[in-house]
Write a structure and sequence with these properties.
The chain has 181 residues and is mainly α. The protein is 67% helix and 0% strand. It has ten helices and no strands. The protein is globular.
Length: 181
């Protein structure tokens, strides 16, 4: 089994339901062990999984869990080289399928260098409320004055009047404010 197939199998396993003999604590230990074993050499295979979704990836309620596991795995793989990870994930903002996870990864990397990427994405009229909320949350994860300025611009956009978008922006701005001090 090649590395990409092994990573995909682990991501599917960790994002699926608990088996009859697996406790939540055991699953958490498996999750932590998996993330600890990732490094820069796994970035490209993980990004490949994001760009070319396998038919094995669940399309049901577990899809969100899979995306979260994948996002956490990419961030863990890039923990020792976050700028490399950011530079590899940035082009995926152009890919409609990969974009939601790419936005989340940029926020989770918490690099100020991610702010211009998210700002540019917010200026391209995000297509869904989910995308608007993800951009806001990612900016809140990064925090600071520069992120807050982008969030203020987003807040003035007519689409930001939708309750879920307005709430995401408000929470992100509060997180930016608390990170300034």
């Amino acid at each position: 089994m090649n590395r990409t197939a092994w990573l995909l199998d682990r991501l599917i396993e960790l994002s699926g339901p608990l088996g009859p003999f697996t406790t939540p604590q055991q699953r958490e230990q498996q999750h932590e062990h998996f993330l600890a074993g990732l490094d820069e050499s796994t970035l490209d295979p993980l990004i490949g999984i994001l760009v070319r979704p396998s038919p094995e990836v669940p399309n049901d309620a577990y899809r969100e869990h899979f995306e979260l596991e994948l996002q956490e795995a990419i961030v863990a793989a890039g923990r020792n080289c976050p700028l490399v990870a950011l530079n590899k994930i940035a082009p995926l903002l152009e890919d409609a399928v990969a974009r939601p996870v790419a936005i989340d990864v940029i926020g989770a990397l918490r690099l100020r260098e991610g702010i211009p990427l998210l700002e540019r994405q917010s200026e391209h009229e995000p297509s869904t409320a989910d995308e608007w909320a993800r951009i806001a949350c990612a900016l809140g994860d990064i925090g600071g004055t520069a992120a807050d300025i982008v969030l203020a611009r987003m807040q003035s956009h007519p689409q930001a009047r939708a309750p879920e978008i307005a709430e995401a922006i408000l929470i992100a701005r509060m997180r930016c404010e608390s990170s300034k001090g």
